[in-house]
């Protein structure tokens, strides 16, 4: 009875919650070990954490300008498409779907399962099969919610963002109290140059940037934002500053209570922290951390489904995935598509190998997106942007991203080579199918030239089964 399209339901508060909820997730509770292991000392690890926060702010400001220049949803994908062309945008889509996003979701899901079960098995480690089962159950719950309602997904994100900040506060407060009492022994020789691992620094940055990742999430839902020209920059700046301060204080608290060796030996740093500093909350903090990971899963599904939705609308993905549920007004097919790949990666994956595996591709394409901002400015000097950053910010951010990606080949050649191969495997797909079919629709159209009754029948039956139709109102 009413038009079918994605409504503008994301207010400034919900945009802020989406960013906080996406950044503060498993990263701050997993990555301290990865950053410390690859930087070599407490002092250098704190420098890496601050540098990653500063770098994230640079990237977030670039994306805020891109979000005011380009009015479509889709994040990295649409920015690369509009500035650098269809080939790099399809390679991003290919790598994002088959490697980056499922690996990222698997990492967060596994962290959710580990922390949810930790209180029941402490001081022993939770059984791996049980962790993976709970991880999948959590992921499926979020998947169902995002298929059901945009409003309830956004409300959940707001509530979980408050819980995330509470979880950080419960770690920061006791650590700062001990530090104020003079417990500084763990910071002696904090900058030990002999332990500095220059060849591993890119992996330390990957771990740190993984913890901050999420500052780009509003760009994926641009068409659903209320007053995006104002709310994108405002939400980005406030949320990133909040997270930088929170992360620095959290890491200082970790080192105050645990020390370097304890952090490296712990499979769940936040749980080890509570066991040492706040035993009365031993069963509470892991649950708060698990809920924090739950919010990150929710934000990831919410935003990536919009990338598939926009890619389908642009003709680089099957048309079924640009359809919306007729009553729920959610991009149901795009939401459900990640189900099998994430399930597979959770079942077979390990957190730290997965992290290096997807970080290469992610930061390569983020660097290309900010390079696209420089190109877009050069091509369209007449275009007025309500938010504009100094040129040195996108230039420096792009150089650092691409340099870190190049250095990572030396640091972890096996996992990085797998990620590179995944990206390059998109070339033949693009030239055999997409390049020839840009005026039509992807593989579905290619197949329909040979099997028109079959492809039409499948599309029609899937539409009936999922109760979805094409968007009826242009929202950009």
From TrEMBL:
GO terms for molecular function: L-amino acid transmembrane transporter activity. One of its GO terms (cellular component) is membrane. Its main location: membrane. InterPro entries: AA/rel_permease1 (IPR002293), AminoAcid_Transporter (IPR050598). The chain crosses the membrane at residues 12-30, 42-64, 76-100, 120-142, 162-183, 203-221, 233-257, 277-297, 332-354, 360-377, 389-410, 416-434. The keyword RNA-binding does not apply. Keywords: Membrane, Transmembrane, Transmembrane helix. It holds the Pfam family AA_permease_2. It is found in: Membrane. It is a multi-pass membrane protein. This is XCT protein.
């Amino acid at each position: 009875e009413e038009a079918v399209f994605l409504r503008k339901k994301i207010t400034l508060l919900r945009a802020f919650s989406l960013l906080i909820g996406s950044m503060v997730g498993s990263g701050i509770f997993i990555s301290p070990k990865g950053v410390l292991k690859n930087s070599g000392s407490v002092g250098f690890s704190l420098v890496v954490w601050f540098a990653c926060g500063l770098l994230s702010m640079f990237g977030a400001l670039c994306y805020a300008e891109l979000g005011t220049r380009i009015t479509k949803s889709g994040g990295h994908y649409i920015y690369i498409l509009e500035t650098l062309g269809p080939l790099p945008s399809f390679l991003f889509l290919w790598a994002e779907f088959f490697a980056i996003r499922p690996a990222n979701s698997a990492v967060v899901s596994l962290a959710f399962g580990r922390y949810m079960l930790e209180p029941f098995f402490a001081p022993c480690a939770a059984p791996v099969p049980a962790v993976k089962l709970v991880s999948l159950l959590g992921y499926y719950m979020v998947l169902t919610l995002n298929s059901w309602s945009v409003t309830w997904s956004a409300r959940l994100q707001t509530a979980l963002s408050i819980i995330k900040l509470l979880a950080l506060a419960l770690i920061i407060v006791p650590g700062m109290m001990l530090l104020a009492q003079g417990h500084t022994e763990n910071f002696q020789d904090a900058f030990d140059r002999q332990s500095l691992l220059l060849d591993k620094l890119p992996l330390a940055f990957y771990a740190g940037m993984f913890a901050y990742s999420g500052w780009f999430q509003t760009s994926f839902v641009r068409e659903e934002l209320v007053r995006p020209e104002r709310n994108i920059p405002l939400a980005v700046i406030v949320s990133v500053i909040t997270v930088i301060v929170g992360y620095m204080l959290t890491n200082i608290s970790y080192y105050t209570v645990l020390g370097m060796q304890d952090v490296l030996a712990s499979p769940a740093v936040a749980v080890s922290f509570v066991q040492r500093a706040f035993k009365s909350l031993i069963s509470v903090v892991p649950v708060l951390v698990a809920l924090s990971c739950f919010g990150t899963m929710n934000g990831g599904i919410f935003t990536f489904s919009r990338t598939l939705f926009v890619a389908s609308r642009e003709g680089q993905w099957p048309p079924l995935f640009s359809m919306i549920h007729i009553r729920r007004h959610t991009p149901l097919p795009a939401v459900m598509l990640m189900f099998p790949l994430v399930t597979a990666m959770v079942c077979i994956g390990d957190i730290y190998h997965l992290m290096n595996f997807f970080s290469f591709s992610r930061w390569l394409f983020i660097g290309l997106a900010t390079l696209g901002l420089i190109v877009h400015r050069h091509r369209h000097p007449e275009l007025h942007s309500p938010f504009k950053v100094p040129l040195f910010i996108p230039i420096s951010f792009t150089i650092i991203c691409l340099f870190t990606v190049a250095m990572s080949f030396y640091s972890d050649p096996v996992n990085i080579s797998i990620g590179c191969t995944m990206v390059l495997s998109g070339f033949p797909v693009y030239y055999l199918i997409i390049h020839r079919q840009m005026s039509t629709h992807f593989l579905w159209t290619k197949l329909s030239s040979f099997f028109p009754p079959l492809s039409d029948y499948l599309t029609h039956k899937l539409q009936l089964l999922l109760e979805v139709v094409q968007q009826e109102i242009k929202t950009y």
